[in-house]
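A further point concerns the way the authors explain their paired sequence and structure data. The central task, working out the structure tokens from the amino acid sequence alone, is never made concrete. I therefore recommend that a typical entry be quoted early in the introduction. An entry of this sort, consisting of the sequence and the corresponding backbone structure tokens, reads as follows:
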Amino acid sequence: MHRLPVRRVVAVLMGIAVSRAQAQSRFELSPFASRNSSLEGSPTLVGAALTSYGGRLGGIFGLRFGGGYDIRSLAGSGTTGDTERGWVADADAVISPARFPVIGPLLGGFLPTFFSGIGAEGLRRTDGTGGQSLVGSYGIGVARTLGSLSFETEARHRTPINWTGSSSSDGGVPIPTTRTGWEYRIGFSIGFGGKTTTRGIPSISIPTGAGSVRRAEPVPTASASAVIATGNGYLGTHYTYGGSSPKSGFDCSGFVQYVFARNGVTLPRTSRQQATTGQSLAAKLDGLRAGDLLFFSQSGDGVDHVAIYAGNDRILHSTSSGGGVRYDDLDSPRGKWFRDRLVAARRVLGDGATFVDPFAVTQLDSKLDPPDKAPKP
């Protein structure tokens, strides 16, 4: 029995994390607690923020409004040691690149957010003194998606722009109670509204052919959407016999191996080796779902070509006859050539997949896949 390498275990765990990612929502409500060193006494604040994301570029841009209040005020403390009451209010422009196709799936469930904005903060003592300041701020947050929640940490740098108020009851020269400093937050967010696709993996349009009646197929899983989105990023990459990278070009199995590796799934190198991994499926289109692997035999002497099933009777692959990475419709005359040579299908995504250690199949058949001889597009 062969032991799975540690990197395989890590890859599978990352895949599970991504597949359970929070739905990409138009709005996010984020309660938080923070420590604010830009206010005198560095008070602890509690508050909440509401973010609204737009619909362009995968919804990566948004606006956020929020505020926090000194926890001592909420507790109603009246001791002499708790005489300061701090507060903050912010309006920010937000960019969350992990919401863009391809980027999100590569981060394994960790979602960075960058923001900059303007706001106000202040501090009031029980003797009536204190003041407030207009502030500019910027920072970065990182969220970790777990189920329907995202747990977040954030660092914000605050710089006072002006200050009004008093610092003493005797009418002396006012001394600002705000200063340049950092605020550190921890909290969680709940998404609602908008689309129900996976957060960090916006819905993608899988090309469809014309003139054919499509079977009803299940909605692509999060991990399948991630794989297809990654593959879309290499459309047009030229075909190279033995190629396994965007720089050198791809052959069929090099493309499949590269795309799945970018999504945390390790596959062996050649199509014959890849045909030993995952869960075996019937070699027909019924019952397939996006992200499955299809294997073809040109000569009848074993597997020698592989493609990713993209749904709606479409395959995504690197093909010599097609000039490189492209989609082919299996209902088209060219696609029928591949369909007639379909000999196997495997599922390497999802809970039903069972993996074979790639090192255990290296001696199976390491001969590179030949160029396909399908009709030209």
User: Anything to note?
Assistant: The domain at 24-192 is CATH 2.40.160.20 (Porin). Residues 1-24, 77-82, 195-213 have pLDDT under 50 and may be disordered.
